[in-house]
Amino acid sequence: MSKQIDIKDLDIFYGDFRAVDGVQMQIKPRSVTAFIGPSGCGKSTVLRTLNRMHEVIPGASVSGEVLMDGNDIYGAGVDPVNVRREVGMVFQRANPFPTMSIKENVLAGVRLNNRRLSKSEADDLTERALRGANLWNEVKDRLNLPGSGLSGGQQQRLCIARAIAVEPEVLLMDEPCSALDPISTLAIEDLINDLKDKYTVVIVTHNMQQAARVSDKTAFFNIAGTGKPGKLIEFNETSTIFSNPDKEETENYISGRFG
Amino acid sequence: MTTTHTTTEAAVSKPPKLTSKQLPKATPWIVAIASILVAILISFIAFGGFNIPVVAVLAGLINAIAVFAVSAAYEGRRKAVDRIATTVVTSTFILACVPLISLLWLTASKGGAAISGDLLTRTMLGMKGVLDQQYVAGEVTLAGGFYHAIVGTVLITAAACIISIPIGVLTAIYLVEYSNKNRLGKAITFLVDVMTGIPSIVAGLFAFALFSTIANVLMPGSAGIAKTGFTAAVALSVLMIPIVVRNTEEILRLVPMDLREASYALGVPKWKTIVKIVLPTSVSGILSGVTIAIARVIGETAPIMVTAGFAKTLNWNLFSGWMSTLPTFIYDSQLRPVSPGAAALASSERAWAAALVLVALVMVLNLLARIIAKVLAPKAGR
The whole model's pTM is what? Predict the structure, then answer.
């Protein structure tokens, strides 16, 4: 239950503006891939194309191919809704549904997708997803309270639980720890390590130590200047990127000498 | 080098002064009361008596000057300016409250004196001028009533809601979720803006013209049967839809994009995201907007007059016959009292009682909307 993603010649546009240019990448199943790079270099944009979320922004379009186990998710007749059921996503800001309780939040994906659940199935799924997100012990006594009452770190793990409750093949994470304290970050990093056994995980992060800690492979994106498209500079084993990168640009970025 | 430099500089400059003179907290109140007393005194000396408008204006002016002077003398200029700004804002607020409170007071006192359970349950059926003359002479209790107008108000407003809430809310959903600022969306926004400014009598004429034309086509010569409660409801809808659209649009735009994206990312289709995520999150705001729209149209007089006429008796049928609402009842009572001359007072009293009921109806609606909004609002749950 996890898929390989092949990105071929991917160009991403916002209106006429070319935001990302010519990305080539192969993401292996059951691995963690980190996207690093300066702000505005297009790493989040690339991430969002992997489950067709970038289309939510008016005027956004792509050219190129994104193959999930060989099927192009931009092929003719592909329904983005079906793609998103296979590729879950966790966002930078925790966004539990404010009208729903913790339990309803976890079950939201399943319920909104028209699957009826019996009470015991719902309870099982809630527990499984919350345990999977390392949150069960903290919330098991208040499953019926609103999700927005949790702390920031707990809310983010609730969002992860919500994403894995629909059992996707791939899990995308867009800077999931950027608003969290080190302890919550550690909890989520541990979680990513566990998730890798079942899912293909792609994570965007600004924190290079985090990329080094959690990922198997790392992609470094950079941008030549404002108004220029972002480019994939180097895609390599994480250990190589952080010890002996192929490109000088990568070396400069990870060692803090920018430019 | 740097360290020594800062140390010497700190030693040379004076230690920062964090405290300053402050007037006691009660000062503005004392000054305000003193200003009112002085104003009353001036009123007695200069105008030979207690004159409310003169006292109010004088007290306001004296208060502003006194607050500034006292504060400037003791606390310094910056605080004095701050205080005078506070005083001006507060005085303006009180000024704005004057017409509101006096209107409520007048309605409550005049309407409260006239109102009785009988007025609420009787209609004007069989009403004669003699009865009013006897009432003014003190021989009988106030006859007649406006049960028919209450029923008319509720029915016509409810029908207007049934027409305009779905249209208004769905239009707003189209504008926010689907139009992406395309040409149709811009055109609708423009038309809604124009509709907001339509004079209510024009809305009434439009509805009447529409239905009398239809009636004439179906049954030539019968344009008159178009004067019904339903025609009035359509006229009110013309006034209500733009308000509902505008308010709902604002509220829907406040729903964070994050929530929609979270839902899409779970593989939830767009329509379901709107129905299950966006609308529940914003339902309390939408309801407040709807209440504002209802409060706006429930007091309309002109469009009701030209579309539903004036009825003296109870009519439960929206689709046939004339109907009265509270505003048209008030208008009719004042303009054409049942009995002319001194006994017109009776009609006037009925009108005030009806006005009180109308104001109470709007207030209850507002209260209801607040309660519903509070119950349905997303909870923080800490």
Answer: 0.83
